[in-house]
Amino acid sequence: MADLLQAKEIKDRLRSLIEEADSIDPSLARRLEEINRWVKDIKTGSLTAKRFVLLFLQQIIRDSQILLALKTLDSEEERKLYYDRMTPTEKYWYGYLFPKWLNESDTKFYIWKKKLMAGEFYHEDAGIIKAIATEIIRRQGTFWYCYVADFSMGTDIIASSRLAKPLCIQLTTVSDEFSQEKSQHWENTMKNWGIERGLFLSFNPTDTNFVNQIVNVLLYNSDQLRTGVYLKFSL
User: Fold this and answer.
1) Which of 22, 120, 195, 224 is 20 to 30 A away from residue 73, measured at CA?
2) Which top-rank group of organisms is this from (predicted)?
3) Distance (Å, rounded) from C-alpha 60 to C-alpha 35?
């Protein structure tokens, strides 16, 4: 399992995935080579100390293994069966957004890689994301979170209700009156990545019921929000 890999194993796995991807998915191989150049000269002990870099690398290894598994299946029927075992949000990630990220230029990648390596990222909202994910799953919805979607695609959460229509959501504690510039930047990001609808949700973290309120809004809109709509909503 990728989440059990240590720093030395991660470096080895990256190199083997590059070799495997080279003849199967050149765009994946190029992205993995870019990531490998970023970490190959970092000593194992130093890399081990960089918790969020390791988490990102573990996510990339997991995603790459799954994508290669899909690419090496012999028939469309086998691929369909593989996708059918995924949740709707996983299917959206592996079937659309992750391949799109591999095949297109990401102008933000260099910036956030640098911040991760410098220790300038702390993921203060991890507890909130976990609480929201737990509540989504309790209500039989599905949930996806990863650094690429968060940092490059303006998406803190990909969620779907039981109707299985994934929705990309950005969460912010900036009040509605001060969030105009941020929400416009978010909408532009959505469109640039071909994300056809999205929810920009402002909330008050001091409200004791904010997790339930957030989940109510995002599950409702995962079903109801129309294609081409980038909704700004304030709780």
Assistant:
1) 195
2) Bacteria
3) 9
Q: Are 27 and 102 in contact (CB under 8 A)?
A: yes
Give the number of other Cβ atoms within 10 Å of residue 129's Cβ: 16
DSSP for 168-201, please give it.
Answer: EEEEE-S-GGG-HHHHHHHHHHHHHTT---EEEE
Residue 171 burial (CB < 10 Å; 0-12/13-18/19+)?
Answer: buried
Residue 140: pLDDT band by 50, 70, 90 thresholds?
Answer: very high
Q: What is the pLDDT of residues 167-207, one digit of tens each?
A: 999 999 866 666 778 889 999 999 999 999 999 999 988 88
Question: pLDDT of 87-108, one tens digit each?
Answer: 999 999 999 999 999 999 999 9
Residue 200 — φ and ψ, nearest 5°? -105, 110
Q: Which residues pair with 198 in a beta bridge?
A: 168, 230
State the Cα–Cα distance between residues 206 and 116, nearest whole angstrom: 28
Amino acid at site 145: Y
**Dihedral sign of CA atoms 108, 113, 115, 121 in order:** positive
Residue 131: Cβ-neighbour burial (10 angstroms; 0-12, 13-18, 19+): middle
Dist. CA 79–CA 125, nearest whole Å: 35
Q: Going edge to edge, which strands form the sheet with 230-234?
A: 142-144, 157-160, 167-172, 198-202, 230-234
